[in-house]
Specification:
about 475 residues; Fumarase C, Chain B, domain 1; Fumarase C, Chain A, domain 2; Ribonucleotide Reductase Protein R1, domain 1; 3 domains
Length: about 475
């Protein structure tokens, strides 16, 4: 890997409008990238891989459109196309050292891409890197383009792909919960409100509720495609298409759609998605909704495990001092992932709201927050799906908690009436008992108590149509 921070002995001299600068001779990047390395040592992390490959794909579509329209010589266009494909395939990842946070609305990342493509394409044509390159970053690779249409288009492509992957991962979690819903439909346990005992429910129904929440998440993430598919490619600087031929403006998105197999569409008003990035806020909110469900469900599973109603898969030792202790570490990791995703939504919202006039200057922060959240949620959901599959129920522990809870008297109201149920409750409390079922057997007889507390009665939707039925 080339060290872009320290000047190697083997360098080449490049110049731009600000002056001259040394660039590592073996680097495919150029002077703009070298300046960005010095200017933005912020996070120590480059842009997400998904954005880098999406950006290379946009450049490839622009190149192909320019070749088709006769704006680029065939040999040069072929070299640019080949260089873009190498980057998409994952080659030259170390040639993109620009920090993921930067000023300029993504210009430094975009220029890093332009320079790498230009120097690699020049090399393919038998030329040199740098000032003597046969392919030029701005005049050739960036022909008829601007950061302001290329960068947001690339972010949308990366996000579309990320949403598709996340939707599939959420679907696996939903399916795992649905399997448990069916498996444990007859396991009676206590419901809870305000973390206190409430009326009986089935363990399967509780897992079914988790599945329902994830079903909504999956659908919302899948439908995010509609929010992200409209792009401003061809709008150049502010959406007016200045410096780009009309034929290019009307063709380039079609070429990109064919290359990506994504349902991309050119915005009717190219100035709108150049100036307004609210679609990203909407999608980020959908991710936040999934994160909120994730945190809530993981929290519930932790409590259910603590109550002994379910047994979580044992994945690693839980303590450096307490032998045999096993903690719910997967669920704890999920809660942290969800909290980080919620924080990412705040960053996306703030970045969009602070755009001015014809551009959103803070797209690098937006892209980082959105794409990292997509990757984080997808990775956890894939881990989580297997963890859910491994959860086991303890029906006996569930039954013990039901039978020992005075809240069980609530289930008698439709059959015995409030007054009789209340009297039984007071008698139970006075007796100092610990087993409601045994108490009712003693008071009402085994047959009647068994009928009143039968699982099908406890779990039925609603009470009897006739009083005391």
């Amino acid at each position: 890997m080339i060290d872009g921070g320290a000047m190697a002995e083997d360098t080449r001299r490049e110049t731009d409008g600000l002056g001259a600068m040394d660039v590592p001779a073996r680097a495919y990047w150029g002077i703009h990238t070298q300046r960005a390395i010095a200017n933005f040592p912020l996070t120590g992390r480059p842009v997400p891989e998904s954005l880098r490959t999406a950006l290379a794909t946009v450049k490839k579509a622009a190149c192909e459109t320019n070749r088709e329209l006769g704006c680029l010589p065939p040999e040069k266009a072929e070299a640019i196309r080949a260089a873009c494909e190498e980057i998409v395939e994952g080659r030259w990842a170390d040639q993109f050292p620009v920090d993921t946070l930067q000023g300029g609305a993504g210009t430094s990342t975009h220029m890093n891409m332009n320079e790498v493509i230009a120097n690699r394409a020049s090399e393919m044509m038998g030329g040199a890197r740098g000032a003597g390159a046969l392919v030029r970053p701005l005049e050739d690779v960036n022909l008829h383009q601007s950061t302001n249409d290329v960068f947001p288009t690339a972010v949308k492509i990366a996000a579309l792909r990320g949403c598709a992957r996340l939707a599939r991962a959420v679907e696996k979690c939903q399916g795992a919960f649905q399997k448990k819903e069916s498996q444990w439909a007859g396991v009676v346990k206590l419901g809870r409100t305000q973390t206190r005992d409430a009326v009986p429910i089935s363990l399967g129904a509780e897992f079914g509720v988790f599945a329902e929440a994830l079903a909504r998440d999956r659908w919302r993430v899948y439908k995010s495609e509609e929010r992200l598919r409209v792009v401003n490619l061809g709008g150049t600087a502010v959406g007016t298409g200045l410096t780009a031929p009309r034929r290019y403006i009307f063709r380039v998105t079609e070429v990109l759609r064919e290359m990506t197999n994504l349902p991309l569409a050119r915005a009717e008003n190219l100035m709108d998605p150049t100036a307004n990035a609210d679609a990203f806020v909407e999608v980020s909110g959908i991710l936040k909704a999934h994160a909120a469900n994730l945190v809530k469900i993981c929290g519930d599973l932790r409590w259910m495990s603590a109550f002994g109603e379910i047994r979580l898969p044992k994945v690693q030792a839980g303590s450096s001092i307490m032998p045999g202790k096993v903690n719910p570490v997967i669920l704890e990791a999920g809660i942290q992932a969800g909290l980080k995703a919620m924080a990412g939504d705040f960053l996306v919202t703030e970045a969009v709201s602070r755009g001015t006039f014809q551009i959103c200057e803070f797209l690098p922060l937006l892209a980082t927050g959105l794409l990292e959240t997509l990757d984080l949620l997808e990775r956890f959901d894939r881990i989580w799906a297997g963890h859910i599959d491994g959860i086991e129920a303890d029906p006996a522990a569930c039954a013990r908690r039901v039978d020992s809870s005075p809240i069980l008297f609530t289930a008698l109201l439709p059959r015995l009436g409030y007054t009789a149920a209340e009297r039984l409750g007071r008698d139970y409390e006075a007796s100092g008992g610990t087993d409601v079922r045994a108490f009712l057997v003693g008071k009402l007889g085994a047959e009647k108590a068994g009928d009143l507390l039968a699982p099908d009665r406890l779990l039925a939707l609603g009470g009897p149509d006739e009083p005391n039925a």
